[in-house]
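Severity: low
Component: inverse-folding endpoint
Summary: output formatting inconsistent between runs
Steps to reproduce: submit the following structure tokens with default settings.
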């Protein structure tokens, strides 16, 4: 795949015709006067950064639970890396950079403590009450659970930011109303009854670059953290042709490089090649689609910002290596079991006695609720916890708390 460098947006300052225009936004659920100094998507991004949910990401697991090193990624540092890549892609493709960055910054708001382990455990205990989905939880946070503004709950983000949050990974429904990846989470359906996010269409191109930036970021930094932890070795990377090629390239240019610099040189090349691949594929699809508006991107028959077939295969191989050597490593699985026990124990304790959730602002109203409504509030409380808060909460309530090392 080759890039048309003449079409890149570096330094042009002009949005493409298919970019989302902040000055013609579909607006906010609660109307607000426009800002004199910021576009609507700038305001969204700024509101996201100033939330409690954003700050909590610094103590939520990305891969390694309770890490002994300060250098492993957390959910916050992962989010910042995703936002950087999303903004770079948006600039190259002449999109609205603020919208792309905002979607990237908010995309993991709904994640529980202990990463996907916590999400799986919370989903299991909430199955009788509709289950748990981190994307739906992100929507709940920005439309209901953040309590900062005098005139509304949530952040009152624009329609475009909410659409990007919900649909950055593609449509959630087919045109005939069927879920594309199983049933659509009820919180998303409930919100769309009030404010239709058009679940059967693709999201904006800004949201799509945020989604592919997520893949690029964690494929790269999970390798970096895996090498740092010792769960991955350079020999393991050699088994993937794409990574073997990058390593050969670095060795040829820097034959005596120390391991830490060698790792970084591989990672920076990996990000560059993946970003360039996405730009080239997206340009090719834009040329075929010839969109005249952002709505044409939404109505397209396929995703516009994605990997080439070759890079998609590399992505599959990298994920397979990470699952085999890190995510499913016996040491990690043992720690994951302890983390799941913490979430399960806390859920049962709070369902039995909601008064134990002393810092939850709904605690005084939960007693009269049915089990489904009570479970959702308990789920909100648990999902909002950081790793450290969940561990301390468990230590207060139970004689023994699993050691997450």
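Observed output (run 2 of 3):
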């Amino acid at each position: 795949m080759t890039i048309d460098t003449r079409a890149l947006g570096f330094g042009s300052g002009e949005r493409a015709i298919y970019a989302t225009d902040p000055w013609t936004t579909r607006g906010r659920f609660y109307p607000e006067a426009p800002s004199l100094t910021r576009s609507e998507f700038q305001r969204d991004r700024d509101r996201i950064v100033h939330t409690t949910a954003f700050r909590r990401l610094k103590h939520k697991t990305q891969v390694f639970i309770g890490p002994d090193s300060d250098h492993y990624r957390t959910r916050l540092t992962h989010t910042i890396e995703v936002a950087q890549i999303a903004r770079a892609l948006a600039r190259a493709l002449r999109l609205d950079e603020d919208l792309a960055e905002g979607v990237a910054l908010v995309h993991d708001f709904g994640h529980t403590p202990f990463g996907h382990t916590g999400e799986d455990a919370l989903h299991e205990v909430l199955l009788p009450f509709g289950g748990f989905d981190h994307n739906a939880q992100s929507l709940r946070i920005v439309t209901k659970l953040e309590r900062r503004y005098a005139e509304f709950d949530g952040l009152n983000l624009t329609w475009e930011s909410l659409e990007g949050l919900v649909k950055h990974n593609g449509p959630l429904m087919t045109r005939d109303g069927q879920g594309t990846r199983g049933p659509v989470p009820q919180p998303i359906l409930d919100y769309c009854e009030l404010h239709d996010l058009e679940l059967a269409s693709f999201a904006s191109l800004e949201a799509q670059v945020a989604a592919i930036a997520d893949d690029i970021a964690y494929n790269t930094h999970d390798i970096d953290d895996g090498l740092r932890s010792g769960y991955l070795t350079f020999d393991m990377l050699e088994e993937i042709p794409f990574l073997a090629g990058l390593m050969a390239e670095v060795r040829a240019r820097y034959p005596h490089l120390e391991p830490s610099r060698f790792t970084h040189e591989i990672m920076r090349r990996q990000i560059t090649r993946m970003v360039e691949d996405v730009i080239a594929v997206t340009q090719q699809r834009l040329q075929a689609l010839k969109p005249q508006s952002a709505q044409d991107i939404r109505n397209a028959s396929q995703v516009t910002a994605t990997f080439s077939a070759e890079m998609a295969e590399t992505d599959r191989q990298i994920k397979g290596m990470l699952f085999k050597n890190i995510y499913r490593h016996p040491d990690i699985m043992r720690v994951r079991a302890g983390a799941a026990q913490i979430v399960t124990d806390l859920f049962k304790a709070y369902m039995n006695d909601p008064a134990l959730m002393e810092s939850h602002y709904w605690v005084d109203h939960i007693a009269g609720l049915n089990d489904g409504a009570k479970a959702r509030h308990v789920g909100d409380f648990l999902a909002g916890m950081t790793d450290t808060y969940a561990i301390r909460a468990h230590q207060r309530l139970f004689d023994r708390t699993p050691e997450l090392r």
